[in-house]
Amino acid sequence: MLDDSATPPASPSATGDRGGSLLRLRRFILTGNRLYDEAALQALLADLIGTEQDLDGLRAAADRITRYYQDRGYLLARAYLPPQEIEDGVVTIAVQEGVYDDITLDNRSRVDDAVLRRGLSALKAGDAVHIDRLESRLQALNELPGAAVQGTLRPGAAPGSTTLRVDAAPTPLATGSIEADNFGGYYTGEYRLSGNLDIDSPLRLGDQLGLRLLASDGRQRYYQAAYRVPVGPALTRLGMNVSHMRYALGREFDILEAHGTARTTGFFVEQPLVYGRQFQLRAQLTYEDKRLSDAMDVFSVRDGKRVQIATASLTASGEDGLFGGGRSAALLSYGWGSLRLDSARLRAVDQAYTQSAGGFGKANLTLLRQQNLPGPFTLYAQVNGQLATRNLDGSEEFSLGGPYGVRAFANGEASGDQGWQATAELRYLPMPGLQLAAFADAGRVTVNRRPWNDARNTRRLSAAGLSLTQSGPRHQVMAAMAWPIQKEDEHSGPRAEPRFWLRATRYF
């Protein structure tokens, strides 16, 4: 009689002496398999039929089925040799697929039990434990504002089963930051102070209310409020935001008494499609309604326009072991929009020149890679691009200059309907919390998708520089300086060589 049910899967062995007498295999019988049909599993054992095997060889045969399950994410699955009398070379292999016996929730967070259980509803008692599905659900719950979620697998009451215990701990009700930088526009105020406040799960729904305020040392003010809430068993995120910005041009343009406002209302729906340890994929649909107003009081001119745009986007990110390991991300989006001009004067100017009123489309792509290098070095690279179907309003254009673009040029410098911008950084981490980097930036824009005169229609910018970032649990300070490589006349402010960027953030 053969009984291997209490023995864990053994490593394959070619030694006959340790495994006892040999038997000639005629057939395998499989029991307990529900996820994969018998034909698929029998194919794994086909080469053993007609061969002589000892006990070690039979255990190795069961190991093949165990590995087949585990390679496909069923890490608790196990194939073994149950008690049996072997007759005529017929061997039975039993499969325990590793199922949930029970799923329990210990919730001490500010998110209601019903929300957490809704997120776990895809995992049911009696289902086989698939590591990707389990991690996906736990990750989805862990992203809910107001809860820090962990899962633990424990032996279940029935053989071959497990109990999933989900613990949800509370997180702070409010988090935020205060930030000071010189990232503003030359004519609206370079030095800015901003504050962000997030209130997590105020209604115990896994929801979040976000508030943002910004003021420059010129006459720019910005206010935003945003709210999002998860719905349904997939915890699809629904949200909306409203913002208001007002500005006035200073310095040389102060005499014009130029000022304006931008009011935006937005809605979005976001759905994580793939959650995993090494790869994530999300889809998002957004709609924005922008109402823009510009005025020059010295000429008694006031113009208004409205931009409405719906955007579909996919965001992917993941980690890998390529060339020492690294992390990559990509964002692809396409927006369908329309521009309406409210004043007759503005419509006449647009008809004669840019012809941007009406429907438009634009595609955006961002690719980034952070590559591990030997020692305390990493290499970071990023590429951004935009394509447009026609001439765009300035609010929808692609810009090269600024602290997140070609850093030797002012914010908003070299804007156009379409273009690309690339960055490469060699980063050095001499100690935890300190990063030094040498970088190079470059980009090109097409000013007008459809030129309407003989003026130069492309601009190219490039730069190189150095940066320092110091981070701690409650703060971050960044300083960068950049020199232009390819020099051009600047329209967004005076030339600066080198150009300095500073940002200090305090978290609470």
Topology (elements, then pairings):
Blueprint: E1 23-24, E2 27-31, H1 38-45, E3 52-53, H2 55-71, E4 78-80, E5 90-96, E6 99-107, H3 113-120, H4 131-142, E7 147-155, E8 161-170, E9 174-181, E10 192-200, E11 208-216, E12 221-231, E13 236-248, E14 258-274, E15 279-296, E16 301-320, E17 326-341, H5 344-352, E18 358-372, E19 377-388, E20 398-399, E21 415-416, E22 418-431, E23 434-446, E24 458-472, E25 475-486, E26 499-507
Parallel strand pairs: 2-5, 6-8
Antiparallel strand pairs: 1-3, 4-5, 7-8, 9-10, 9-26, 10-11, 11-12, 12-13, 13-14, 14-15, 15-16, 16-17, 17-18, 18-19, 19-22, 20-21, 22-23, 23-24, 24-25, 25-26
Describe this structure in words.
This protein has 508 residues and is mainly beta. Helices cover 11% and strands 52% of the residues. The chain has helices at 38-45, 55-71, 113-120, 131-142, 344-352; strands spanning 23-24, 27-31, 52-53, 78-80, 90-96, 99-107, 147-155, 161-170, 174-181, 192-200, 208-216, 221-231, 236-248, 258-274, 279-296, 301-320, 326-341, 358-372, 377-388, 398-399, 415-416, 418-431, 434-446, 458-472, 475-486, 499-507. A 16-stranded antiparallel β-barrel has the order 9-10-11-12-13-14-15-16-17-18-19-22-23-24-25-26. Strands 2-5-4 form a three-stranded mixed beta sheet, covered by helices on one side.
